[in-house]
Design a protein that fits this description.
Blueprint: H1 2-6, E1 13-19, E2 23-30, H2 37-43, H3 46-57, E3 61-66, E4 72-80, E5 87-90, E6 93-96
Antiparallel strand pairs: 1-2, 2-4, 3-4, 5-6
Amino acid sequence: MNNAGKRAEASKSRIELVDGQDAMRLVIKDNGQGFGAIRAKSRRSFGLINLQERTERVGGKATIHSQQNFGTQIAVIDMPVRPAPRMERHYDGIKPYSHHDR
């Protein structure tokens, strides 16, 4: 979202988050200036590369579609949904709750 306003000069952005039973989908679209495939590769956009690598690491897939003067769409799909661990505050910070802590 930061890049949409700062670099793409977008006037509108849209975020869709669909939560399925086993996976979720996140789609971010903007109407900014977009970028072509050659420009994206030549700039070595570390933010986009990082997004793809992190998504794949947890079993999801990230796709980026952008066209010069037609905006950008980033979709993170098939992101596995896992319950977050219960957190409990301890004197040394926050740590995951375990049934052994009872």
